[in-house]
Design brief:
The chain is of the alpha+beta class. The chain has helices spanning 56-71, 95-103, 106-109, 125-130, and strands at residues 4-7, 14-18, 21-25, 30-33, 38-46, 75-80, 86-92, 113-120. The strands form three sheets. Strands 6-7-5-8 form a four-stranded antiparallel sheet. It has a two-stranded antiparallel ribbon with strand order 1-4. The protein is elongated.
Amino acid sequence: MKNLIAILGLFVIVNTQLMGQTKVKIDSLETLEINQCIKILAIEKDIEGADWNSAKEILEDEARHVYLFYLKGYIREIYFTENKNAILILECRNKEVASDLLNAMPLVQKGFTRFELMELRPYTGFTRLMNLQ
């Protein structure tokens, strides 16, 4: 039996690629097979000139979005750096889906932050160095 992750209704608009066409999903049920997911490292970068003194409501909305994405299984880990930048480990179908999710975040929408994304791949160093199969 296949392992499945059920990702229940998103409450934000997310653009995803389906059969070569962009489709907007709102409040949808999406099921992903575990082997269809890849890990994405997302590093939050502040945008210069943002007025953080006026961001209280946006920060509360951001926290709700992060929690929702965590509950849905997209965000697997979240950290802060010593400079208070967020580091997220996401599991998504591809880098584009991760980008769409993060671009729907309130702080990104309002021009406070952006994310640098990197696809994480399995480490193959041991196999190469030790001739393991």
